[in-house]
Amino acid sequence: MNYEELIKETALADDRLIVMTAENRALIRNLPAVLGPRFIDTGITEQTLIGSAAGLALRGRIPVVHALATFLTLRAFEFIRTDVGIGQLPVKISSFVPGFLSDGNGPTHQAIEDVALMRGIPGMTVFAPADEEDMLAMLPQIWASPSPAYVRINTRKGTYSHAPFEMGKAEVVATGTDVTILVYGMLFEQALIARELLEAQGKSVGLVNMRTLKPVDEATLLQVVRAGGLVVTLEDHFQTGGLYSILAEVLLKNELTAKVLPIALNEKWYKPGLLSEVLEYEGFTGQHIAQRIAEKLGANPAAITTKTEVVENQFAE
Amino acid sequence: MTSEKQDELKALALRVREHIVRLSTDGGCFTGASLSCADLLVYLYADFLNISPATVNAPDRDFLFLSKGHDVPALYGTFAELGFMPKERLANHLKSNDSIYWHPNRSVPGVEFHSGSLGHLPSVGLGVALDNRLRGLKNRTIVITGDGELNEGSVWETVLVAAAHKLSNFTLVVDRNHFQANVATEDLIPLEPLGPKFEAFGWAVQRIDGHDFAQLEAAFGALPFSDTKPSVIICDTVRGRGLPSIEARADRWFCNFSSDEVVELLKELHSQEATTLTSETLTVR
Q: What's the rounded Cα separation, in Å, for the pair A170 and A233?
């Protein structure tokens, strides 16, 4: 099963589902022939894509819209906020190549404020699967929900066998007493590597796959904070508005504080290139992440010498 | 259209204009833009659209989307006169106990979707028209835009997409009152030649006097203009129509009159309309 097969199966079983795109067909190339008029390509018109999806949703349809994450969340932001958001319509946004996944495209294509923007819309739900298996497990529940939804599409093959998905719940992969890494989306695979490297240095390392960023799993965040130890927020997102901010909001709300290391893009876009080059240059490979955490823990980062092999991204657009 | 019918619609439009004037105080409203499309809305709801207070949610109703949402006093005035809402509800304008404010709210029966930000409802209407076609329904989807609103690029996106999809069940109506918020359109972002612009984008076009009920009937009655193209009706109108003291004035977009001014404006409204109405229709009112 892949993304296209899942959406095809869902659409064939439920004629409310409409597959839409602003000419971004990378994941849905074979669907026009299968869905006929229930496949709607509006051309390179993100605003009209979202507005017409809202119109279709008004009539009881469930539009799943596809376009590049930046153009959807930025070019069409007001349409998402005003038509989908105020209307509280079940438009499902499949956001392509978010975060580091736009690798070689350059800053115009870097959706690294999308979580901040989308979670600011009342009623919007926000999801970031760790890999393809994680994504395919969550999409049926997301599409069946009456809420508008934003999904950071992630088709990368994972190595980790995930627990069943539960809406609004994070996946606690491991608990640890020295440090816990909170992560979402494609950096999960690097976090797994970082965890192994740190464990090899004798550290007790927890790891949480956030999965749902809104509504956030506050209980799990509080558990992690109350366990003590360093908390790392790891994200391919601006440091402002994403997981680091979410954690800060949860801490303030509960009158708590914590020792937190944000690993994010702080006031900068990232250097474009092959994904391996991006992660290496920006310090987001498993090795770099482990070293940054070791340093914060007062351990010797130079002791972590295993270089991380990064599987390249398979999509150019 | 018979002269009796025209008189009936004129009398109705006069009552709608009274509502607009009365809403132009205690906080005010977008008076000029509301007066320009009052005749259009009166014609559509009283004589053309397949929708009534009893069928606001009927699946086979016609859909009207007011994209230039700031003329909502004309819509609510029409709704009040035709029984979509009790007239007393207009007294809740700008009160927190209701949802009657400067732009449409979907909780008001008959309002298909909220608007206010220009350039949105052409695309929302497009989605509804696509759905109606998917279902094989004959419902019409009509979106009313302002002319200043045509500055928005999103309108032209939708104009392209609707033509690409050959959406003959989709109609755009331009309230061509020749003013943007503060400036005459042709002095800021010239739109003319407007009809040929739409034709070049693959639309079927008619241009009429948007205050002439016979012309409105002739144009809307001819829909769809084409089986393979969306239709646009450009309605030439006058901003502030019905009140010569504010007609076609750049500084009469948003108005917040004193209660004394409202009394004078109502007199002015009646003195204008009296010249075109029979004494009988005035008595009916």
A: 14
Domain presence at residue A237: yes
CB contact under 8 A, A45 and B158: yes
Quote the ipTM score: 0.94
- Are residue A141 and residue A8 in the same domain, yes or no? yes
- Would you tell me the crossing angle of helices A46-58 and B121-134 to the nearest 10 degrees? 50
- Burial bucket for residue B103 (CB in 10 Å: 0-12, 13-18, 19+): middle
pTM of the model: 0.95
Selected residues 133-152 of chain B with any CB under 8 Å from a CB in chain A = 133-134
Q: Locate the chain B residue with the closest alpha carbon to A77.
A: B120
Identity of the amino acid at B269: L
Domain membership of residue A314 (yes or no) is: no
Domain holding A248, by residue range, is 171-303
Which of B106, B125, B160 lies at the smallest CB-CB distance from A55?
A: B125
- Domains of chain B and CATH, by start: 3-284 (3.40.50.970)
CATH no. for residue A95? 3.40.50.970
Q: A32 and A120, same structural domain?
A: yes
Q: Are residues A118 and A211 in the same domain?
A: no
A153/chain B closest Cα distance in angstroms: 24
Per-position pLDDT tens, chain B of length 285: 999 999 999 999 999 999 999 999 999 999 999 999 999 999 999 999 999 999 999 999 999 999 999 999 999 999 999 999 999 999 999 999 999 999 999 999 999 999 999 999 999 999 999 999 999 999 999 999 999 999 999 999 999 999 999 999 999 999 999 999 889 999 999 999 999 999 999 999 999 999 999 999 999 999 999 999 999 999 999 999 999 999 988 888 899 999 999 999 999 999 986 555 444 444 333
* Tally of domains within chain A: 2
List the single residue in B113, B123, B133 with the smallest CB-CB distance to A47.
Answer: B123
Q: How many other C-beta atoms lie within 10 A of the C-beta of residue A30? A: 13
Instruction: Give the Cα-Cα-Cα angle A240, A245, A248 (nearest 5 degrees).
Output: 145
Taking CA atoms, what residue in A is nearest to B130? A56
